[in-house]
From TrEMBL:
One of its GO terms (cellular component) is endomembrane system. Residues 1-102 form the V-type proton ATPase subunit S1 luminal domain. One of its GO terms (biological process) is regulation of cellular pH. Belongs to the vacuolar ATPase subunit S1 family. This is VAS1L protein. Residues 117-154 form the V-type proton ATPase subunit S1/VOA1 transmembrane domain. Its main location: membrane. Signal peptide: none annotated.
Protein backbone atom coordinates (compact mmCIF):
# COMPACT_ATOMS: atom_id res chain seq x y z
CA UNK A 1 0.00 0.00 0.00
CA UNK A 2 1.63 3.26 -1.14
CA UNK A 3 0.57 6.72 -0.02
CA UNK A 4 1.64 9.51 -2.36
CA UNK A 5 1.43 13.16 -1.38
CA UNK A 6 1.18 14.47 -4.96
CA UNK A 7 1.74 18.20 -5.39
CA UNK A 8 2.00 19.23 -1.74
CA UNK A 9 5.00 21.56 -1.73
CA UNK A 10 8.23 19.89 -0.62
CA UNK A 11 6.42 16.56 -0.12
CA UNK A 12 5.84 16.11 -3.83
CA UNK A 13 8.36 13.28 -4.14
CA UNK A 14 7.58 11.63 -0.76
CA UNK A 15 5.94 8.20 -0.74
CA UNK A 16 5.02 6.12 2.33
CA UNK A 17 4.99 2.42 1.50
CA UNK A 18 3.26 -0.05 3.83
CA UNK A 19 3.92 -3.79 3.46
CA UNK A 20 0.83 -5.80 4.48
CA UNK A 21 0.44 -9.58 4.57
CA UNK A 22 -2.39 -11.98 5.40
CA UNK A 23 -2.11 -15.25 7.26
CA UNK A 24 -4.59 -17.90 8.32
CA UNK A 25 -4.63 -18.77 12.02
CA UNK A 26 -6.25 -22.07 12.94
CA UNK A 27 -6.81 -20.99 16.54
CA UNK A 28 -9.09 -18.10 15.53
CA UNK A 29 -10.33 -19.93 12.36
CA UNK A 30 -9.94 -16.82 10.21
CA UNK A 31 -7.47 -14.77 8.19
CA UNK A 32 -5.55 -11.96 9.86
CA UNK A 33 -3.64 -9.15 8.23
CA UNK A 34 -0.43 -7.67 9.61
CA UNK A 35 1.60 -4.58 8.85
CA UNK A 36 5.22 -5.76 8.72
CA UNK A 37 7.24 -2.91 7.32
CA UNK A 38 7.04 0.81 6.61
CA UNK A 39 9.32 2.50 4.09
CA UNK A 40 9.82 6.18 3.38
CA UNK A 41 10.78 6.89 -0.24
CA UNK A 42 11.86 10.25 -1.59
CA UNK A 43 12.33 10.71 -5.34
CA UNK A 44 12.08 6.92 -5.81
CA UNK A 45 14.91 6.15 -3.40
CA UNK A 46 14.42 4.49 0.00
CA UNK A 47 15.24 6.94 2.76
CA UNK A 48 14.17 4.95 5.86
CA UNK A 49 12.81 1.52 6.72
CA UNK A 50 10.94 0.67 9.90
CA UNK A 51 9.89 -2.73 11.18
CA UNK A 52 6.36 -2.64 12.57
CA UNK A 53 5.16 -4.50 15.68
CA UNK A 54 1.70 -4.95 17.11
CA UNK A 55 -0.35 -3.84 14.10
CA UNK A 56 -2.59 -6.74 13.15
CA UNK A 57 -6.31 -7.48 12.98
CA UNK A 58 -8.74 -9.96 11.43
CA UNK A 59 -8.83 -9.59 7.65
CA UNK A 60 -12.47 -8.47 7.74
CA UNK A 61 -11.66 -5.73 10.28
CA UNK A 62 -9.62 -2.56 10.19
CA UNK A 63 -6.94 -1.56 12.66
CA UNK A 64 -7.06 1.72 14.59
CA UNK A 65 -4.58 3.36 16.94
CA UNK A 66 -4.40 6.86 18.39
CA UNK A 67 -0.64 7.06 17.81
CA UNK A 68 1.64 4.92 15.65
CA UNK A 69 5.11 6.31 16.09
CA UNK A 70 8.83 5.67 16.20
CA UNK A 71 9.02 7.69 19.43
CA UNK A 72 9.26 5.97 22.80
CA UNK A 73 6.61 8.18 24.40
CA UNK A 74 4.07 6.60 22.02
CA UNK A 75 5.25 3.03 22.71
CA UNK A 76 7.39 2.93 19.53
CA UNK A 77 5.45 0.59 17.25
CA UNK A 78 7.83 1.61 14.45
CA UNK A 79 11.35 0.30 15.01
CA UNK A 80 14.30 1.23 12.77
CA UNK A 81 15.33 -1.79 10.70
CA UNK A 82 19.01 -1.45 11.63
CA UNK A 83 21.27 0.73 13.72
CA UNK A 84 23.32 1.80 10.69
CA UNK A 85 20.27 2.74 8.63
CA UNK A 86 19.19 6.31 7.97
CA UNK A 87 15.97 5.45 9.80
CA UNK A 88 17.64 6.67 13.00
CA UNK A 89 17.48 10.22 11.59
CA UNK A 90 13.72 10.08 11.02
CA UNK A 91 10.93 10.55 13.53
CA UNK A 92 7.63 9.25 12.20
CA UNK A 93 4.29 9.67 13.99
CA UNK A 94 0.82 8.92 12.63
CA UNK A 95 -2.04 10.46 14.59
CA UNK A 96 -5.45 8.74 14.58
CA UNK A 97 -4.02 5.96 12.43
CA UNK A 98 -6.46 3.52 10.79
CA UNK A 99 -5.68 0.94 8.16
CA UNK A 100 -7.44 -1.88 6.35
CA UNK A 101 -5.57 -3.63 3.59
CA UNK A 102 -8.10 -6.25 2.51
CA UNK A 103 -11.84 -6.81 2.12
CA UNK A 104 -12.61 -3.11 1.82
CA UNK A 105 -16.26 -2.62 0.91
CA UNK A 106 -17.68 0.57 -0.65
CA UNK A 107 -14.58 2.56 0.31
CA UNK A 108 -15.34 2.48 4.04
CA UNK A 109 -13.41 1.07 6.96
CA UNK A 110 -14.84 -2.02 8.59
CA UNK A 111 -15.22 -2.38 12.36
CA UNK A 112 -11.92 -1.33 13.93
CA UNK A 113 -9.76 -3.40 16.25
CA UNK A 114 -8.09 -0.88 18.54
CA UNK A 115 -4.47 -1.00 19.61
CA UNK A 116 -5.30 -0.15 23.23
CA UNK A 117 -4.15 -3.04 25.36
CA UNK A 118 -6.59 -4.65 27.77
CA UNK A 119 -4.11 -4.03 30.57
CA UNK A 120 -3.64 -0.32 30.12
CA UNK A 121 -2.46 1.67 33.19
CA UNK A 122 -5.97 2.98 33.90
CA UNK A 123 -7.49 -0.51 33.75
CA UNK A 124 -4.72 -1.93 35.93
CA UNK A 125 -5.30 0.80 38.53
CA UNK A 126 -9.02 0.05 38.50
CA UNK A 127 -8.34 -3.67 39.01
CA UNK A 128 -5.98 -2.96 41.92
CA UNK A 129 -8.51 -0.66 43.61
CA UNK A 130 -11.26 -3.26 43.12
CA UNK A 131 -9.03 -5.90 44.70
CA UNK A 132 -8.33 -3.66 47.71
CA UNK A 133 -12.07 -2.96 48.17
CA UNK A 134 -12.85 -6.68 47.95
CA UNK A 135 -10.23 -7.43 50.61
CA UNK A 136 -11.70 -4.79 52.93
CA UNK A 137 -15.21 -6.19 52.36
CA UNK A 138 -14.00 -9.76 53.01
CA UNK A 139 -12.33 -8.65 56.25
CA UNK A 140 -15.50 -6.85 57.39
CA UNK A 141 -17.63 -9.93 56.65
CA UNK A 142 -15.14 -12.10 58.51
CA UNK A 143 -15.38 -9.84 61.56
CA UNK A 144 -19.21 -9.86 61.41
CA UNK A 145 -19.37 -13.65 61.19
CA UNK A 146 -17.11 -14.11 64.20
CA UNK A 147 -18.85 -11.47 66.30
CA UNK A 148 -20.04 -13.05 69.60
CA UNK A 149 -23.30 -11.95 71.16
CA UNK A 150 -23.52 -11.27 74.91
CA UNK A 151 -24.87 -14.21 76.93
CA UNK A 152 -26.30 -11.97 79.62
CA UNK A 153 -28.14 -8.77 79.16
CA UNK A 154 -27.11 -6.41 81.88
CA UNK A 155 -29.61 -3.86 82.95
CA UNK A 156 -28.86 -0.85 85.07
CA UNK A 157 -30.91 -1.30 88.20
CA UNK A 158 -30.92 1.08 91.12
CA UNK A 159 -29.90 -0.61 94.37
CA UNK A 160 -32.81 -0.87 96.81
CA UNK A 161 -32.71 1.41 99.82
CA UNK A 162 -31.64 -0.30 102.99
CA UNK A 163 -33.83 0.07 106.03
CA UNK A 164 -32.62 -1.39 109.27
CA UNK A 165 -35.05 -3.69 111.00
CA UNK A 166 -36.38 -2.32 114.22
CA UNK A 167 -36.77 -4.47 117.26
CA UNK A 168 -39.72 -4.10 119.62
CA UNK A 169 -37.35 -3.87 122.59
CA UNK A 170 -35.65 -0.85 121.10
CA UNK A 171 -38.85 0.86 120.23
CA UNK A 172 -39.43 1.97 123.78
CA UNK A 173 -36.10 3.73 123.97
CA UNK A 174 -36.45 5.51 120.69
CA UNK A 175 -40.00 6.73 121.21
CA UNK A 176 -40.73 10.01 122.87
CA UNK A 177 -44.30 10.80 123.92
CA UNK A 178 -45.91 13.77 122.34
CA UNK A 179 -48.36 15.73 124.40
CA UNK A 180 -51.54 16.44 122.60
CA UNK A 181 -55.08 17.00 123.56
CA UNK A 182 -55.92 13.57 124.95
CA UNK A 183 -54.27 11.38 122.28
CA UNK A 184 -51.05 9.56 122.94
CA UNK A 185 -48.51 10.25 120.26
CA UNK A 186 -44.90 9.19 119.87
CA UNK A 187 -42.08 10.58 117.78
CA UNK A 188 -38.94 8.74 116.84
CA UNK A 189 -35.79 10.28 118.16
CA UNK A 190 -33.68 8.73 115.48
CA UNK A 191 -34.44 10.81 112.38
CA UNK A 192 -32.87 8.44 109.85
CA UNK A 193 -36.00 6.23 109.70
CA UNK A 194 -38.28 9.12 108.92
CA UNK A 195 -41.44 7.43 110.32
CA UNK A 196 -43.90 8.79 112.82
CA UNK A 197 -45.97 6.52 115.00
CA UNK A 198 -49.28 7.87 116.23
Amino acid sequence: LSLKFGDIGNLKGLVIRLLLTTSYYQLSVQNWFSLHRLQLLYNHSVQATFNVTGIHAPATYSFHCEHVSSLQRYDALLIPSSANDLSQLWEVTFIDFQIQGFNVQEGHFAYARDCASFFSPAILMGLVMSLILLLVLAYALHMLIHLKSLDRHYECKASPAYFAQMKDSDMGDEKEPLRNSGNESYELRNQQFGKIYI
